């Protein structure tokens, strides 16, 4: 941790000095040879979190992964601008879990680093970028080295990109056996309505030759006092082929995922919401899709991502219903509660006593409290009761607390 912290603090010091030297002087006596408007902006966030997780893997064995731990993270976001062009990057120092020994797991990572160059109406983004789309249902594997071109015409944006997934270095084929993604997308907004469609082709030129395609369409709208979000995604091809058992339906390869959510503010303090999500043939939602405390691994309290089965490799369907309410008790204190029901075909027949369809019920509760400007305390509780899910059907519980600071 000390080494990572020294590196991070040194970086902040150097960049702070850089920001002072290259502050915007509107081109007057510019040390940038007349490059007006150059500047560096530094921001970021940090948190400290503590968790208690009981039977969170739900496997009912002697070691139920009951854990209690603390962790922390600091992220530094830097944007260097010269004219309309920008260099965008973010660094993270992640201590993972405190272990009382100066934490040997500490590391310093680059979340993204790329050039953003507007050439009206075209925008060029080149470098290591994070993937994001729609309402976060579509699964993205990781940050990628990417070249992307996009353009905006009024309320419509179109674009195309390629991701480098694996640079295969071999001599005989002149380094052509690479794995890449190729994507095209279009989005459009009309007043309070926004939507888009994306198609991504996974091109595998290795000897495996496991190609595949992902397609997703999303929509967001504010209509008649209702906030509505929806997304439909599909994965198909050899890359995404799934298998139920060794003897039945081994070529099942069209995976579908979908969800619709609706929320409404009843007054200036109380709002209610509902969500339905569906996963077919093993479709796994992105980790940022977090409908409950225990679903969506962007939550450290989560068991798994929606549609994912942590107990086996089966690939049946999953269905999720969630209803919830949010209450702004005071300007600084917000409260929420949720009830979720999961129909988990993906877990069926994992154990001798499992029936045709397993299920689970989850109850969530939490609060957010503003301790100071840009500093928030959050407490989240999730309690899940399984039904014909494992041999003992022991309940799982996750409690998380965090203090987050944004700067």
Written account of the structure:
The protein has 407 residues and is mainly beta. The chain is built from 1 helix and 18 strands. It has an 18-stranded antiparallel beta barrel. β4 and β5 form a beta hairpin. The protein is globular and about 55 Å long. The N terminus is likely disordered.
Task: Indicate the topology.
Blueprint: H1 2-21, E1 39-54, E2 67-82, E3 85-97, E4 107-119, E5 122-129, E6 144-153, E7 156-166, E8 179-190, E9 193-204, E10 212-223, E11 226-236, E12 255-265, E13 270-280, E14 318-328, E15 333-344, E16 358-372, E17 375-387, E18 396-406
Antiparallel strand pairs: 1-2, 1-18, 2-3, 3-4, 4-5, 5-6, 6-7, 7-8, 8-9, 9-10, 10-11, 11-12, 12-13, 13-14, 14-15, 15-16, 16-17, 17-18
What is the radius of gyration computed over CA atoms, rounded to a whole number of angstroms? 24 Å
Number of strand elements: 18
Mean pLDDT: 81
The major β-sheet equals: 18 strands, antiparallel, barrel
The end-to-end span amounts to 21 Å
- Strand-residue fraction? over 45%
Kindly state the percentage of residues in helix: under 10%
- Give the number of helices: 1
Overall geometry comes to: globular
| Strand-pairing-aware structural class | mainly beta
The H/E string reads: HEEEEEEEEEEEEEEEEEE
Low-confidence stretches: 1-34, 244-249, 348-355
């Amino acid at each position: 941790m000390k080494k990572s912290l020294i590196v991070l603090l040194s970086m902040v010091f150097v960049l702070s000095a850089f920001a002072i030297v290259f502050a915007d002087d509107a081109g007057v006596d510019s040390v940038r040879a007349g490059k007006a408007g150059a500047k560096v902006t530094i921001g970021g966030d940090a948190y400290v979190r503590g968790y208690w997780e009981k039977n969170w893997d739900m496997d009912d064995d002697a070691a139920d992964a009951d854990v209690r731990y603390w962790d922390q993270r600091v992220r530094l976001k830097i944007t260097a601008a010269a004219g309309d062009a920008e260099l965008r990057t973010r660094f993270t120092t992640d201590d993972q879990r405190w272990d009382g020994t100066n934490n040997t797991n500490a590391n310093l990572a680059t979340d993204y680093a790329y050039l953003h160059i507007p050439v009206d109406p075209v925008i060029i983004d080149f470098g290591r970028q994070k993937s994001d789309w729609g309402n976060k249902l579509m699964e993205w594997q990781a940050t990628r080295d990417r070249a992307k071109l996009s353009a905006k015409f009024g309320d419509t944006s179109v674009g195309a990109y390629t991701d480098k997934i694996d640079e295969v270095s071999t001599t005989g084929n002149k380094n052509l056996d690479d794995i890449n993604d190729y994507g095209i997308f279009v989005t459009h907004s009309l007043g309070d309505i926004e939507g888009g469609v994306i198609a991504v082709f996974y091109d595998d030129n290795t000897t495996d030759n496991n190609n595949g395609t992902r397609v997703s369409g999303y929509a967001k709208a504010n209509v008649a006092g209702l906030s509505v979000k929806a997304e439909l995604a599909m994965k198909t091809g050899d890359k995404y082929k799934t298998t139920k058992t060794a003897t039945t339906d081994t070529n099942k390869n069209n995976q579908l995922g979908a969800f619709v959510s609706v929320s409404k503010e009843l007054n200036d303090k109380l709002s209610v919401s509902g969500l339905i999500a569906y996963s077919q043939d093993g479709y796994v939602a992105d980790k940022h899709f977090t409908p409950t405390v225990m679903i969506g691994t962007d939550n450290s309290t989560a068991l798994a991502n929606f549609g994912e089965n942590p107990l086996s490799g089966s690939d049946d369907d999953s269905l999720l219903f969630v209803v919830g309410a949010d209450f702004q008790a005071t300007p600084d204190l917000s409260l929420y509660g949720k009830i979720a029901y999961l129909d988990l075909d993906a877990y069926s027949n994992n154990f001798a006593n499992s029936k045709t369809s397993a299920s689970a019920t989850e109850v969530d509760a939490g609060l957010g409290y503003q301790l100071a400007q840009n500093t928030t305390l959050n407490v989240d509780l999730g309690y899940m009761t399984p039904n014909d899910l494992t041999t003992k059907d022991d309940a799982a519980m996750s409690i998380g607390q965090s203090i987050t600071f944004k700067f």
